[in-house]
Amino acid sequence: MLTRILNDADSPLIEAFLRKHADGSMILRGNLILDGVEDQGGRWGGVYAGAFDERGELRAVAAHYWHSGNLFPQAESDAALAAAVQCVVAASGRPVRGLIGLRALVRRARAVLGLNEAPARYDEDEGLYALELSALREPALLADPELELRALRPSDAELHIAWYRDYDRGLGADDDDELQARLRDGFERALKSGERCLLTRAGVPSAITNFNARLPDLVQVGGVYTPPEARSRGHARAAVALSLRDARERGVRRAILFTGEDNLPAIKAYTALGFERIGDFAIVLLR
Questions:
Q1: How far apart are CA 3 and CA 287, in angstroms?
Q2: Hey, where are the domains in the chain?
Q3: Chain mean position to CA 168
Q4: For the chain, where are the E strands, in sequence order?
Q5: Over the stretch 129-141, which tens digit does the pLDDT of each residue have?
Q6: What contacts 164, CB < 8 A, 6 or more positions away?
Q7: In the structure, what pLDDT confidence band is assigned to residue 179 with cuts at 50, 70 and 90?
Q8: Across 35-53, average pLDDT
Q9: What CATH number does the domain located at 130-286 have?
Q10: Cβ 57 vs Cβ 42: under 8 Å
Q11: How far apart are alpha carbons 152 and 157 in whole angstroms?
Q12: Cα 240–207–243 angle (5° rounding)?
C-alpha cells in the first residue's frame, strides 16, 4: 500500500471513493463540504490520509479532526485501513480522542493504533439505519394543529444548553466548565446553521432534532433529544418526521442515522417512521 496525506486537488478522487460507501461515510463527506481536505484550522477540518493499491486506486480514507480529536475511517480492506490510519495519526501529531464509523473499521483501527486497552468514557455498538424518504411513514401526531417544528431562536439558549448537557452526559462527558463552554458554542453554531430544530406543542418545547451531515440528496439525523417529562408521547418521532418531510420537499431522497443497539425506545421510534437497519456502527470516545 502507498499512503500519503491528501490535499484539495484530491477532492474529486475522495468524493468518488466515499460515494461508493455513502451510507457509512456521511460525517466524512459532510465535513469535507464544510471545511475541505486541507487542514486550515476550521472547526470541521482535519488531516486526511489515503491508501492506494499497486494500480494507484484509492482503497481507504482516514480523517483525524483537529477540534474533536476523533478519527473517522473508511476502507475496502484491512491492509488499506491500517495503512491510512497509521499515516493520518502520524501526520496529525495529535492524540486520538475517539473513533467513529462502521463497526468493523472502528474495531480494526483501534487495534492497529494500540488503543484496545485505552479507557473509554463511551463505547457503544450502534445500528446503522436508512430510509428512502418516499417511504417515510408520518405519525398520526402530525395532525395535531398545536404541533410545530421551528428553527432555533436566540431565546432558546438556556433550554438548548440544559437539554444537550443531559444528552452529552449520557455520552460520558464530564459535567464541567469545558462542557458548558462547548454547549454555548454549539448553540451559536446551531443558530447560524439552521440544521437544528425545536418541536413545540401549544408553544411548549418538547423535542429537538438535527441533521449532523447534509448532502444534496442525503441527510444524516442526529442529536435527537426529548426531555424526561415529555418522553413516551411520540414527540421525538414527530420532530424527526417533520424534519425529514421538509428535507424531502427540498429534494433530499434518503436519510441515514445510527443509534445504540440497546436504545429500544429510539429503535422503535425510527422503525415506525420506516427506517430499516442496514449495518453495524460504533462510537468509541476515549478518556
A1: 29
A2: 2-118, 130-286
A3: 14
A4: 2-5, 46-52, 58-65, 70-75, 98-102, 120-132, 147-151, 196-201, 204-214, 218-225, 254-260, 276-286
A5: 999 999 999 999 9
A6: 183, 186, 187, 223, 225
A7: confident
A8: 89
A9: 3.40.630.30
A10: no
A11: 9
A12: 25
The C-alpha cell that represents 150 in the structure block: 421551528
Query: In the block, which residue shows the cell 468514557?
Result: 121
Cβ-Cβ contacts under 8 Å for 24 (sequence gap 6 or more):
74, 101, 102, 105, 128, 279, 281
* 183, 174 contact by CB (below 8 A): no
Beta strands in 133-243 (DSSP E): 147-151, 196-201, 204-214, 218-225
pTM of the model: 0.91
CA distance 263 to 103: 17
Which residue type, as a one-letter code, is found at position 216? P
* Banded pLDDT at 175 (limits 50, 70, 90): confident
DSSP-derived pairing of the beta strands 98-102 and 70-75? parallel
The rounded distance, in Å, linking the Cα atoms of 45 and 98 is 15
Among candidates 137, 80, 83, 126, which has minimal Cα distance to 103? 126
All three cell numbers of 270, joined, read 425510527
Alpha-carbon distances of 158 from 54, 114, 154, 164, rounded to whole Å: 55, 40, 9, 10
